[in-house]
Amino acid sequence: MKNIFPLLLFIFTITFSKAQNKINWLSFEEGIAQLKKEPKPLLIDVYTDWCGWCKKMDVTTYSNQTIIQAINDNFYAIKLNGEEKEDITFKDYTFKFKENGRRGYHELAAALMNGKLSFPTTIFLTDNAEVLQSIPGYLDKIKLEKIIAYFSSKNYKKTKWEDFEKNFKSKL
Known about the structure:
Layout: H1 4-19, E1 25-26, H2 28-37, E2 42-47, H3 52-59, H4 65-74, E3 76-81, E4 88-90, E5 93-95, E6 97-98, E7 105-106, H5 107-112, E8 121-125, E9 131-136, H6 141-152, H7 161-167
Parallel strand pairs: 1-3, 2-3
Antiparallel strand pairs: 2-8, 4-5, 6-7, 8-9
Helix pairs in contact: 4-6
């Protein structure tokens, strides 16, 4: 009986630490539903299955514990396939897959990226689902940490990026 408490404590610790070891990715619909319940900014990772840089970002940037905690604490994180085949309704409009060449694209991804399809792209939306910024390309953990801090603390409302970046203190 004496040994059961340490065992339970060990199991609880392992279970809790595993829960924080990855980003709580949601589908677009799940993220918007959560947003309606409890407003919070959105971070959208637009990717494709064939994109090597998207996979690299998953393995390197999105696996960093500081990045994981910053995203989970401050955003609803959404994974959006830029070539999604299913319809997605957002702001009373149904976005669809459009065939184009060998692959095609999803209209929602194109709309969020202003028609500039580039993968990966990281998009930040306000807690009212308004686009703040669309950032194309691979982001390493150092760059993404700064960007997350800039948008999560709403510094974008009062501070220019250049000034924020100069004074930023990394937790990495």
